[in-house]
Amino acid sequence: MRTARKRPKTLRDFERRFPAVFRQYLALRDACDQSGPLEAKTRELIKIGIEVARKRHGGLIAHIDRAKAAGATSKEICQAMLLALPLVGFPDLLDAFVAAKKRLS
């Protein structure tokens, strides 16, 4: 998991301004992660697909990093991104690959 130092500045600023809300958000996220049998790598690959669909490049990069830390390969990450293609369309998928390019090499 990221430490406070490694979080993006916007997130660190939010945490400083609303610490109780941020703690509750992390608790909700962790509860959702632990609510079933999926291991961390699979959860992160699913979140990558969601971030492609949402066009959230900051979240995409964060979940790519977390997926790699959980043992995902670049090929697995690319497939998770490709699975979004029929749902979001080719231009959005290409845009996501541009955002993720440095993390996939």
Q: What do you see in this structure?
A:
The structure is a single chain. With 105 residues, this protein is mostly helical. The protein has two domains: 1-36; 39-104, AhpD-like (Up-down Bundle), CATH 1.20.1290. It is 76% helix and 0% strand. The chain has seven helices and no strands. The protein has helices spanning 9-17, 19-33, 40-54, 57-69, 74-82, 85-88, 90-104. Helix 3 runs antiparallel to helix 4. The chain starts with 8 loop residues before the first helix and ends with a helix. The model has no long low-confidence stretch (mean pLDDT 92).
Tell me briefly what this model is.
This protein is mainly alpha-helical and 105 residues long. The chain contains seven helices and no strands. The protein is globular.
CATH class categorisation of the largest domain: Mainly Alpha
Write the element-wise H/E pattern from the N-terminal end onward. Answer: HHHHHHH
**How many domains would you count in the coordinates?**
2
Kindly state the percentage of residues in helix.
over 70%
Mean pLDDT: 92
CATH architecture descriptor text of the largest domain: Up-down Bundle
Tell me the radius of gyration. 14 Å
Distance between the termini: 22 Å
Largest sheet data: none
The CATH homologous superfamily of the largest domain is termed AhpD-like
Strand element count? 0
Which structural category fits the helices and strands? Answer: mainly alpha
Note the total helix count: 7
Residue fraction in strands: under 5%
By CATH, the topology of the largest domain is AhpD-like
Poorly predicted runs of 5 or more residues: none
Outline: globular
